[in-house]
Amino acid sequence: MATSTSPSTIATDPPETIAELLHRLGDIPASRVRFRPVPGSATEEDLLRLLDHENLPCELVEGVLVEKAMGYRESLIAGLILTLLNTHVLPRRLGYVSGADGTMRIMPQLVRIPDVAFVARGRFPSGKLPDQPIPSLVPDLAVEVLSKNNSRAEMERKLREYFEAGVRLVWMVDPTTRSIRVHTGPASEQSVLLSEAEILDGGEVVPGFSVTVAELFPSDDD
Questions:
Q1: What is the pLDDT of residues 46-84, one digit of tens each?
Q2: In the list 65, 87, 152, 209, which could disulfide-bond 34, CB 3.0-4.6 Å?
Q3: What are phi and psi of 33, to 5 degrees?
Q4: Is cis: bond before 207, omega within 30 of 0?
């Protein structure tokens, strides 16, 4: 994994230049950074206004609104994963699965929106679904479907943040190679790459769930 500064250290030292800001966010394209409000000053209320008035999913990182990298194919894959997880999770009352507009405050001043996220029933305060549009909630499983606008550094930062926050399992889904990298921790040795012919399972996080990796990728022959 990259040796970028950890998120808990980053927030205490504002960037001096736009280039430094983009680098800290994971070398993302400048086109994904919103400049209204000014980077460093954005709040959760600003994020909700974008969702309400522009239907534009953004994440809030270090006071910066960062547009989610999305595309049609990525949305199809996320939808398949969401459907399969719900089909398994809901009848067994294991918890709930959210999609690509499920905002979560996974740490103070850090709002992420996994493409798919499973939260076990025991994670919810008092066992009840939160009423807030951006709850303080950490998923047990976070799924990210990679887009061409996602940089490696950005996804490595997300991975560190997820596990620092308490996520137990992360699936990084790559539509280009039709493979999934399963992470049980932030270090590279805590991951395994699954090809189309292999089986993806939920382990102890989503017990009993399993699917062939190929089933998660739409094909022209379908």
A1: 999 998 888 889 999 999 999 998 889 999 999 999 999
A2: 65
A3: -100, 120
A4: no
